[in-house]
Amino acid sequence: MTHIPIDLQYATSEQPDARPPIAALRNVFKVFGDVVAADQLNLSIAPGEFLSFLGPSGCGKTTALRMLAGFEAPTSGEVLIDGQVVNTIEPYGRPVNMVFQSYALFPHMNVADNIGYGLRQRRPRLARAEIARKVGRALEIVRLTGFEKRRVWEMSGGQQQRVALARAIVNEPKLLLLDEPLAALDRKLRKEMQIELQDLQRQIGITFVLVTHDQEEALSLSDRICVMREGRIIQTGDPQNLYDHPKSRYVADFVGTSNFIDGRVEHVADGVATLATPSGLRLQGAANAGLKAGDEACLSVRPEQIHMHRDAAPGSLPGTVHNRIFLGEHTEYLVQQPALGSLNVLAPRQGQPDDLSFQTGEPVHINWNPARALVLSPD
Amino acid sequence: MTRRERNWLLVTPAAAWFVVMLVLPLSVIFVFSFGERGPAGGYVPAFTFEQYANLPARFTAFKNTMILAPLGTIAAMLIAYPLAYQLAVRTDPKWKIILLVLVIVPFWTSILIRSYAWIFILGGSGLPALLEMVGIEGVRLIYTPFAVLIGIVYGYLPLMVFPIYVSLDRLDKRLLEASADLGARPFSTFLQVTLPLSIPGVATGCMLVFILLMGEFLIPALLGGGKVFFVGNALVDLFLQSRNWAFGSAVAFTLIVIMLVTVTVYMRLIARLHSGRQDISIM
Amino acid sequence: MTDTGYISKWKFMEELRRYRKGSVSRRHFLGVTGLGAATAVLGTAMPALRPRAALASSDIGDRVVLATWPNYHDTANFDMFTDATGAFVQVNVFGSNEEMLAKLQAGGSGWDVFVPTNYTITTYVSEDLIEPLDVSKLPNYDADAFDPRFSDAGTVDGTLYAVPKNWGTTGFAVNTSHDGGTSLTSWKDFFDRTKDDFSGRTMVHDYQLTTIGNALKYFGYSFNSVEESELADAERLLIEVKPHLFAISSDYQPAMRSGDAWLTMCWTGDGKQLNADMPEIAFVLGREGGEVWSDYYAIPKGAPHRDAAYALINYMLDPQVNAREVVAHGYPVADANTNALLPEAILNDPILYPAQDLLDALEFGAAATLTDPNRAELLARFKSA
């Protein structure tokens, strides 16, 4: 059993950035009637980072974004942008721009007029030529050069998405807010736009704040992810950190997929917890902070961490292949284990000769590295 | 039954309506307008342009109509817009229906009774008496063009409010947020987003009210005291009093032509204002 | 109106009710509003609105359609007629003789009985729109009891086409509290004072016969003149007076009652009603003359229920029935048998029965006046001037 320096890893991603934040939420509450939409939000957003709010619908992520944009005022607490408290500043006074879920393009204006809208609101007025130049540059960035005179309703969803992006970035906001910007696109287009968004963010260096319920999107785009639940921020971290070291079953479940085995903590030593399952098995894993002997807990082990063998190995558990789905690079197995129930196992094709792949109904032995398993509070 | 036959069957009622209610009466009016008045009134077939030559005798009626109908339309629009805006944009959805119903309630009473209420309000013991109390004396309201204007605006306001309300209610509120987000102050947002996008409703309302006003006769008769003479009043007199059907037909046909020309020009203008937009329908 | 001039809602409703009660003046109003046609349609389309025929005892059919003037009948009489005969009286009210004529000319009126005014009957005869009457079917018609002055027009070329209903005069009503102690007695006074101390307070009818006729009387011309030069004088006077007019409308009761108008051309019944409610309003017949008129019952050509039409006319000519009519609407009758049943107060009322010398100066409207296109055009020019 190896000791895993869990705390060290956490420190790298949760240590506050040395630079002053571009935006921050301090003890922010937002109450709608008797619904708490934001419950003590604390967050600093570093300049140039790509931050995502991730959570199911109704978790408060959109409220958080709208408070940054200025569409909602916090019930209490402070919203800061560029070091200034902006609680009472209207949306039109904030150096922030938003890309709306359904783009909210102005249907009575062509592409160029839509993109130039923000520039035309500036006082003192910008010269026409200057506006045209900036609009042209923005179109270039979103690869829509030549579309200036197009009517927005004539364009495809992906093109409208880019117009919406261009309309926001042309203003060079301190913060670009994206409210589920890709939700309306089909799967293939969404993948393409994800890559484009990431490229764009690197290219122009604006801080992006994204709201999404799509974990894959959050994982692939973000520098940092805030997982939200019922108005609270549950955990913040970079994608890999969240995936490898979720602090709760909720996060482990929402970020990626995992097998959960319920039980009771028998003892904790050196950051390693021993869990007793109701069926009498004893399993070990890295202990979540604060767990102590006697607590209800669950062991989380990712499908790709489970290894399958034809022969028994020390500490391995017997099981039967119940189902098998071929996914190309991987094969997903559903293994029935008498004491633990069904477990998801993801086996890479690599190093698994064709003749060695397991068949449905075949008896197998499974094990995993206890250092790769986590013992979490069950929330 | 083939698809083609079915389509014909579906179109038939509308076509029959169109022929019976529109084409036939118009043809009759057109033919009559070239005839002559009988010795005891009515119509005698003839082919003469005499009736059209006589049109200048109703010049004032046309002039009054062409001034007060557009003026009434614009006044109704200026009053209806803020009202519709308040209802569509600012009102809590749970109050909307009640307030909308309140806008229609006056329609439940005959225009006759409502105009009588105005005769009393604008009459000497009504508003002028109140004005006298605050020191403004000698105001004559009833039986003036102004009284007719008030009656028109009052009577046709709901027709104006509804289309504007619908276009404002349908307006995607995120567009307003987008505008604010892009730095536009509320009034700029109104001018650049709300107003242009509600033009279809305004256009529809103006069209409805204008067309009806061109044929109006009851309100001028009741609130204008017979001194504010619309083409509609001229027609009532020609058909029901002097029974000069030929001249009446010529006046009516001229009114229809003026209306068609005005409406066509108006629609062209609106269409140009929204060049190429497909979501604009005027009628 | 209270002392402070504040309009309470009770007062408002009361005013409105008074307006509605007294507003519908005899000839014009419903014509302008088109309500006459509306009531007719309603009566036909909604049979449930009609009283059920009680014990239909005769074979005259289930209904009779009457085209008449507003506020011109005692509805209790109709109910009794229905009870007696089983025929329901469907009433269509009209605004003007011109409108009645227009409807009959257009054809398909569906009327059984109508109420033309004296000067229209020859036109109906020449246009072949009116049925000669069979006196044997009108046992209640006692021709000798009628003052021939008000019954003559019913007979054209020796044929009886119509029997008299009521008669009346056209004068003016003046609010005497505003006449400065100098009373108005003539049409000259009417127009001259309009340009002077009654400026902005005078109403004239929206009706060519009376408005032009009374303007002609100002110059001493015939009420019925179609003489070009005389009409030109009348037009000049009317256009001169127009800026001083409060309104051109035959619906003058509300304005007279509210005090907005002080002087108006006025028919007998309206004069009587105004005077009864507001004694300061006097009804005056112009010294130069003016109009006297007589209305008749007649049957249009092609009446769908001819038997019922005769039954109704005969019933209305019953002196008992006719007396109840007079008490209800306040217009005099020319029938001695009916007058014998009326109370003294009505018979001695100078509004209903003016002094003989005033009456002698009055003229009946003429057929030519009704159909003259120049007079119609003159009124249109006056109204749109």
Give a brief description.
The complex is a heterotrimer of chains A (379), B (283) and C (385). Chain A is of the alpha+beta class and 379 residues long.
Tell me what you see in this structure.
The complex is a heterotrimer of chains A (379), B (283) and C (385). Chain A is α+β, with helices and mostly antiparallel strands. Chain A has nine helices and 20 strands. Chain A folds into two domains: 238 residues, Rossmann fold (3-Layer(aba) Sandwich); 119 residues, Beta Barrel (OB fold (Dihydrolipoamide Acetyltransferase, E2P)). In chain A, helix 3 packs across helix 4, helix 3 runs parallel beside helix 5 and helix 4 crosses helix 5. With 283 residues, chain B is an all-alpha fold. Chain B contains twelve helices and no strands. In chain B, helix 3 runs parallel beside helix 7 and helix 8 runs antiparallel to helix 9. The two termini of chain B are 32 Å apart. Chain C folds into two domains: 212 residues, D-Maltodextrin-Binding Protein, domain 2; 157 residues, Periplasmic binding protein-like II (D-Maltodextrin-Binding Protein, domain 2), CATH 3.40.190.10. Helices cover 43% and strands 16% of the residues of chain C. Chain C is built from 19 helices and twelve strands. Chain C is globular and about 60 Å long. At the B-C interface, helix 3, helix 5, helix 6, helix 10 and helix 11 of B face helix 1, helix 2, helix 5, strand 8 and helix 11 of C.
What structural category do the secondary elements of chain B indicate? mainly alpha
In the predicted model, the low-confidence regions of chain B spanning at least 5 consecutive residues are 278-283
Radius of gyration of chain A: 25 Å
Structural domain count of chain B: 1
DSSP E strands of chain A, number:
20
Largest interface: B-C, 47 and 53 residues
Helical content of chain B stands at over 70%
The CATH level-2 architecture of the largest domain in chain A is identified as 3-Layer(aba) Sandwich
The CATH first-level class of the largest domain in chain A comes to Alpha Beta
Strand content of chain B: under 5%
> What does the main sheet of chain A amount to?
6 strands, mixed
What proportion of the residues of chain A is helical, as a percent range? 10-25%
Instruction: State the order of secondary-structure elements of chain A, H for helix, E for strand.
Output: HEEEHEEEHHHEHEHEEHHEEEEEEEEEE
What is the average of the pLDDT values of chain B? Answer: 88
Mean pLDDT of chain A: 88
Low-confidence stretches of chain A: 1-15
Number of helices of chain B: 12
Q: What order do the helices and strands of chain B follow?
A: HHHHHHHHHHHH
Q: What class would the helix/strand composition of chain A place it in?
A: alpha+beta
Strand order of the largest sheet of chain A: 6-7-8-3-9-10
Count the helices of chain A. How many?
9
Protein name (chain C): Potassium transporter Trk
Keywords (chain C): Periplasm, Signal, Transport
GO molecular function, one term (chain C): polyamine binding
Subcellular location (chain C): Periplasm
